[in-house]
Amino acid sequence: MSAERETREKSYRGISVRLARHYLEKLGGDVVGDERVEGEGWTATLSSEKVSIGPTLSLTEVTVAFEGDPAALDSLIERFSRKAMRAGG
Predict the structure, then answer these.
(1) Higher confidence at residue 17 or residue 53?
(2) What is the Cα–Cα distance from 76 to 78, expressed in whole angstroms?
């Protein structure tokens, strides 16, 4: 019997990779690289880019590729998103 795994990608504006990594640690993950955090039943890979939000404004958008057990991802993404939305304003 093999465990089902899936990948879900979400983007968050107004937070840094450093802060996203910190939140994932607080949610039970262990940092295994600058852009990778692993937890019980899940892995998160982080990337970022500057995005324009008008003719003169840009901000950082962090993309998190969550991979793992669907049940673990449901809870993790919900809790992470709450933290990220508070930080990003």
Answers:
(1) 17
(2) 5
